[in-house]
Amino acid sequence: MVRLDTLVAYCDRRTRRTAFKDAPGAVNGLQIANNGRVTKIGAAVDAGLVPFRQAVAAGVDFLIVHHGMYWEMPRPLTGAVYQRVATLVRGNCALYSSHLPLDGHPEIGNNALLARQLGLKRRRPFLVRDGEAIGCIAALRESRATLRLRLERLYPRVTAIECGSPRPRAVAFCSGAGNSAVPELAAAGVDTLVTGELREEWFNRAQEESLNLYCCGHYATEVHAVQALAAELAKKFRLPWEFIATGNPL
Questions:
Q1: C-alpha distance from residue 200 to each of 40, 159, 179, 203, 206 (Å)
Q2: Which of 14, 132, 163, 181 could form a Cys-Cys staple with 174, CB 3.0–4.6 A?
Q3: Owning domain of residue 92
Q4: How far does CA 102 lie from the centroid of its chain?
Q5: Are 208 and 161 in the same domain?
């Protein structure tokens, strides 16, 4: 057993929670408390009734998520919103959310881990917001065909738009939604982006600006950081942990 406030303090420091200016509804940090004790850690991408039920059934009493509860708050605690909160409270499961801090972290962030799983190293920052980098850029010494093949081995659904160099010198990473990343590629000197999802309009932009864009799924590109943080906590505090998968195909 570990005190809840001990785990929260560690997560806040490790993710540098207060350094990131996130969307107002992100509410990074502890969103729902429990009785103050933790015996098992869980990790999930999204806050939701189904993952909450799965976590409680698995005996999780400290759940780390990337997308938290409060994006559209304030909302009445009725219907599905009530069921979410009630599931956690009845199950004595605390909820900790970390959005941009777990995208941009140079070691356990989604983008650093996206690069690492391809055998690449985070070389320089990308998508800097209020002094903090959300994405990253890595040098690439292989063809885009090889990059695509590696991505297709890692992810079940890869949409490839290949209008850029057949041998790009670098690749940018932006997990989740990459719509804000595409306009910044040229200034960063990069023509290749690995992301989760993009709006339809970026196909024309890729043709016009000679870009390589690889969409691997919003959910699929954001499973990494919550798992890394949960595993680190479990090792440090000698607690079991479990990833709560939902099979989200988007």
A1: 41, 12, 10, 6, 11
A2: 181
A3: 2-99
A4: 6
A5: yes
Same domain, 151 and 85: no
pTM: 0.96
- Domain assignment present for residue 232? The answer is no
The predicted pLDDT at position 2 comes to 97
- Predicted local distance difference test score (pLDDT) of residue 71: 87
Instruction: State whether 59 and 87 are in the same domain.
Output: yes
> 87 in a domain, yes or no?
yes
CA distances from 105 to 4, 112, 145 (A): 23, 7, 28
- What CATH number is attached to the domain comprising 175? 3.40.1390.30
Average pLDDT of the chain, as a whole number:
96
Residue 141, token pair as written in the block: 């010494």
**74 and 113 belong to one structural domain:** no
User: pLDDT band at residue 24, thresholds of 50, 70 and 90?
Assistant: confident
Cα distances (angstroms) measured from residue 93 to each of 27, 59, 99, 103:
18, 9, 19, 24
Which pLDDT score is estimated for 14?
A: 98
Q: Which stretches within the chain are classed as H helix?
A: 4-15, 49-57, 79-90, 101-104, 110-117, 144-154, 185-188, 202-209, 224-237
What is the DSSP code (8-state) at residue 135? Answer: E
